Amino acid sequence: MIRVFLIATLAPVAALADCPPPPDHSEEISAILGRIQTVDREMDAQVLSNELWELWTDAPDEPAQELLNSGMRARGSYDFLRAMDAFDRLVEYCPDYAEGYNQRAFVSFLREDFAAALPDLERALELNPRHVAALSGKALTLMGLGRDAEAQAALRAALDLNPWLAERHLMTEPPGQEL
Asked: Any idea which UniProt keywords this protein has (predicted)?
């Protein structure tokens, strides 16, 4: 029975070929970030943020998309072990796909394992420096680690891209002030 479970669990990753490059949504992301800077209402900014999420969660291929979706469903039902397994497999299969790292970091953050979340957020940002959610997640993670000055810098970088973030109330310095 255990052997069947292990084969069923590991077979999808073993059967995967090399992950293709992530889709290049840089132009669409730039356009959305430009529009988000000009909206006058939080509701309009939320619609644009949702469009960003659609792009960030567009995985490189169908197997990667299934791993991402499976991990997000598991996380949504607070099954963090199953979520981590899916995101571990996604990152192993698609090491150049930022959202795999971002989602794994989010699970670590929810588990209050800030030390595990931070390297995944940093990797996500290496791959996608304008990933607003990873930037705000990094700020929250640094706060959790008690590294407030670094957290404020990360939050400022996120707010420079999207001034409507819910986390904006966590800024302790007004815009333009040195941190």
From this structure: Repeat, Signal, TPR repeat
